[in-house]
Design a protein that fits this description.
The complex is a heterodimer.
Chain A (H helix, E strand, L loop, with lengths): L2 E5 L2 H6 L3 H11 L3 E5 L6 H6 L2 H15 L5 E3 L2 H10 L6 H11 L2 E3 H6 L10 E8 L3 H6 L3 H9 L2 E7 L13 H4 L1 H18 L3 E4 L2 H13 L5 E4 H9 L1
Parallel strand pairs in A: 1-2, 1-3, 3-4, 5-6, 5-7, 7-8
Helix pairs in contact in A: 2-13, 11-12
Chain B lengths: L2 H12 L1 H22 L4 H14 L1 H15 L1 E6 L2 H12 L4 E4 L3 H6 L1 H7 L3 E4 L2 H9 L15 H10 L9 H17 L3 E4 L3 E3 L4 E6 L3 H7 L3 E7 L3 E2 L2 H16 L6 E5 L7 E7 L3 H5 L15 H5 L1 H6 L10 H11 L17 H5 L6 H14 L6 H13 L3 H22 L53 H11 L4 E2 L8 E5 L2 E3 L4 E5 L5 H6 L2 E6 L4 E2 L14 E4 L4 E2 L7 E2 L6 E6 L1
Parallel strand pairs in B: 1-10, 2-3, 2-4, 4-7, 5-8, 7-10, 11-20, 12-15, 13-16, 15-20
Antiparallel strand pairs in B: 5-6, 6-9, 9-17, 13-14, 14-17, 18-19
Helix pairs in contact in B: 2-12, 3-12, 8-9, 16-18
Classes of the chains: A alpha/beta, B alpha/beta.
């Protein structure tokens, strides 16, 4: 039984307080012993806005909490990217190497589950149809798209519909969605149109940030859409 | 105005996405398909060629200087934009009529405007540039300047110059501009062009174009001035060809442009000068975080793929360089802060980095530039700075962060109730909802599944991309040339007005022919009614990069289909300057 940590990202714990329990449920079904890390942030909001001192001081807290664990599973492709690809670069010299060695032990939840030796024994089953949104960091920085599709393919009874313009950004981009709302909305509208084309009313994605953005837009535009995280979908498929 | 204000206005007034998005979706798919048809390691080779160039810039310039001296080409350097303009003016002497083709560095230094202010008559001879010059708002794309204008608007632009055109058919509009440009070339004193690469080992200039206006410029007026960036050198022909192999596929999903020039000695009675513009490039070269931006080959693939560019258009950037390359290079070239907010014109989706054929980590540079802008005080006011400090304090401790999270939930649940009713017209998004309720019925789709998960995109009208590639090189050459409208025959009946030349080599993967020396002379090629090229079947090579040993030492020209343009709504129009008819006789 592997002893691992589950990092519940700040925005996810705020907006989907049950998500961490769903993720824990799935990881325990895989036979892992899970400790929760919460109340932490990877620093990405400040980093993407150009405020690196603030990003470093906040990200440091996460790395400190993560240090004792051999594996830290993170329910966000975007936070995982921040930790693995950007956070270590904020520390000088030797400390950057130390940060990188902790960062390398972070795993994005979907990829972790898809590659888990016990994944075949989960017995996932859920009847229904979902559309799949491929987040940019998950796709291009972590290059994990095939793993997400493979994992969804393991859910018996689930039909997965892919978007025509799967590689296109949903328009969230963190502070981008606030600083340039007109552009963000234009991108979001295009993505929602693409989702509507699939005919599915449940959208699943490895990144909650895209989902929250698309969900806020869909509700505002009167479009019927439920945005599901992978932990939510998988924990239901376990029942 | 800042980027946000320009973009908001552009979206509100012109909805650029409606024109740009469908074009770019198709172009990006076609580009990927075209690159997939090329050499497997084409991008790696192009990147390596550019990397070598910026790593050996001083040595290569020394070689260029010597080669130019031997060829009788003037070598000039300009430290600043205004110095570049002064040098052009001094080289022009008392020349009064100048035919200018597209040069990004020309845009960068404000060349056309500066020359006109000095009383010199300048005509933009590229069809797209000609159109946006009338409009007066500048180009919206580096390879397709008039992308933001539809045919009806272009017809209106042309009407401003007195052109009375019966309809707005892209062929008619393009041919009208061609005729104006052709007349101008009959009586002008000088031509100004850019260059895509300057080859250090031979001192030749690689210039690519589709329309034939560069062909006219390098061969007609008695004075030819080239203005280009300091970084645009490459070590040798092999490396120039490596760049060529990815340039047109990345830019416009063409195998190669119609004309790929290797321009050598000036013609008898002609003067040729090259001005290398620094304008901050030496400084960028010394900054390890950004020096890779000098690997850029100005193909525009990053803007083709950029969702922000598509949504807000190219004019929103307010810079000669738009899209992700513009958002990186503009604040680096102009350090006064006028473009400091451009790096924020990105959702950081990383698609630019993914498609860049020169391997430039564009989205990472955007992140670094944001941090620079913050630390220089060029962006973010006092309120935003205070907010981030407070944020760092709040999320610095787990207990505090949990409390913020809980407060956030309470706030959203309550504010949500008040504000959830509806979004505004301009921003339909509602506040996020905490743990929304689920309806199991939503797992049932509203419509049956589509027949294919990824509906095929329509094939390109430029390149015949849907065809299966034959293995036999001669068969492949026939097919590729045919896709460009070039018949490959066993023999042809000679006709009056033919220009018959022998190719030094031909390229199977692109359907191109290589002409060197006298065969490459542009004037007779452009004057011919039909160009007949004889190709020896033993000289057909696989890829453009294989042409290096055949390029000779003088003028060379790779022809890939007849002259053409797609500057109006990306609609292909064949036969701009020079004959529409190009025929290959394979022997």
């Amino acid at each position: 039984m592997a002893r691992i940590a589950l990092f519940d990202p700040c925005y996810l714990s705020t907006l989907r307080p049950n998500d961490a329990m769903c993720a824990k449920h799935v990881l325990e079904a895989l036979g892992d012993d899970v400790t929760l890390i919460d109340g932490r942030c990877c620093g990405q909001p400040a980093y993407n806005s150009g405020f690196r001192d603030e990003a470093r001081s906040v990200g440091r807290g996460l790395l400190r909490d993560a240090q004792p664990f051999a594996a830290i599973v993170t329910t966000s492709g975007s936070c995982t990217t921040m930790v693995q690809h950007y956070l270590p670069g904020l520390f000088p010299g030797e400390r950057s190497l130390g940060a990188q060695s902790i960062a390398n032990r972070f795993h994005e939840f979907v990829s972790y589950v898809a590659q888990h030796p016990n994944v075949g024994q989960l017995g996932l089953r859920l009847r229904g149809t979902v559309a799949y949104h491929d987040p940019c960091h998950f796709r291009r920085e972590l290059k994990a798209t095939p793993l997400a599709l493979e994992l969804l393919g393991r859910v018996e009874g689930l039909e997965v519909r892919r978007l025509t313009y799967e590689a296109e950004c949903c328009g969230f981009g963190g502070s981008f969605s606030v600083k340039l709302p007109e552009i963000s909305v234009a991108m979001m509208t295009a993505k929602l149109g693409d989702i509507a084309e699939t005919g599915a009313r449940v959208l699943v994605s490895p990144d909650f940030s895209c989902l929250a953005h698309l969900d806020a837009g869909a509700r505002g535009m009167g479009m019927e859409l439920e945005a599901w995280t992978f932990p939510e979908l998988l924990s239901r498929a376990l029942e | 105005m800042n980027y946000h204000e320009r973009a908001a206005r552009e979206i509100h007034e012109h909805q650029p996405s409606q024109t740009v998005t469908p074009i770019m979706r198709k172009l990006v798919a076609d580009s990927a398909a075209m690159l997939a048809r090329g050499r497997d390691d084409a991008r790696t080779r192009a990147e390596a060629a550019r990397q070598h160039a910026i790593d050996h810039l001083d040595d290569l310039h020394e070689q260029v200087r010597k080669q130019f001296e031997a060829r009788g080409i003037g070598y000039h350097r300009a430290e600043t934009a205004s110095a570049a303009v002064r040098q052009v003016r001094s080289l022009l002497g008392n020349a009064k009529r100048v035919a200018k083709s597209k040069t990004m560095v020309g845009e960068e230094v404000g060349l056309t405007h500066a020359l006109r202010s000095a009383g010199i008559d300048v005509l933009e001879t590229d069809i797209g540039e000609y159109i946006v010059d009338i409009e007066g708002r500048g180009p919206s794309h580096i390879t397709a300047p008039a992308l933001h204008l539809n045919r009806a608007r272009i017809r209106e632009m042309l009407a401003r110059t007195g052109a009375d055109l019966p309809d707005d058919d892209p062929t008619r509009l393009s041919q009208h501009i061609r005729d104006v440009v052709g007349d101008y070339f009959r009586d002008c004193d000088a031509a100004i062009t850019g260059a895509n690469a300057v080859v250090a080992s031979s001192g030749r200039l690689m210039i690519v174009e589709n329309e034939g206006n560069v062909s006219l410029g390098v061969s007609h007026p008695r004075l030819h001035i080239v203005i280009t960036g300091l970084e645009k050198v490459v070590a040798d022909e092999a490396r120039a060809l490596a760049v060529l192999e990815v340039l047109a596929p990345s830019a416009t999903a063409q195998p190669l442009t119609s004309f790929s020039h290797f321009v050598a000695d000036p013609l008898p009675g002609q003067e040729r000068h090259v001005i290398f513009v620094d304008h901050g490039r030496s400084r960028i070269l010394r900054d390890a975080r950004y020096r890779d931006i000098l690997k850029c080959i100005r193909c525009g693939a990053c803007m083709n793929a950029c969702p922000v560019y598509r949504a807000a258009g190219g004019l929103s950037y307010g810079s000669p360089y738009m899209g992700p390359i513009g958002a990186v290079v503009s604040p680096l070239l102009w350090r006064d802060g006028r473009y400091a907010d451009l790096p924020y014109a990105s959702s950081l989706c990383g698609r630019c980095t993914e498609v860049c054929p020169a391997g430039i980590p564009l989205h990472r540079m955007l992140l670094d530039l944001r941090a620079d802008a913050v630390s220089r005080g060029q962006v973010a006011g006092r309120a935003e700075r205070a907010a981030w400090r407070a944020w760092a304090l709040g999320f610095g401790g787990a207990t505090r962060a949990r409390a913020i999270s809980a407060l956030g939930r309470i706030g959203l649940r309550n504010a949500g109730r008040a504000l959830r009713a509806r979004g505004s017209d301009r921003d339909p998004r509602l506040l996020p909802e905490v743990s929304p309720e689920r309806d199991p019925a939503n797992l049932d789709p509203v419509t049956p599944p589509k027949e294919t998960a990824q509906p095929p995109l329509p094939g390109s009208n430029v390149i015949g991309i849907d065809e299966v590639m034959p293995d036999d090189p001669l068969e492949l050459f026939r097919q590729r040339a045919g896709a460009l409208g070039v018949p490959v025959l066993g023999r042809v009946e000679p006709r009056k007005g033919d220009r018959e030349v022998r190719a030094e080599a031909a390229v199977a993967s692109t359907g191109s022919v290589l002409l060197v020396g006298d065969a490459a002379a542009r004037r007779p090629l452009l004057a011919a009614r039909r160009v007949v090229v004889r190709v020896d079947h033993r000289s057909v090579v696989g890829y453009p990069g294989d042409l290096a040993p055949w390029l000779g030492d003088g003028d060379a020209l790779i022809l890939t289909g007849a002259s053409r343009t797609a500057d109006i709504e990306k609609q292909l129009v064949r036969g701009i300057h020079g004959s529409e008819e190009l025929v290959v006789v394979l022997e």
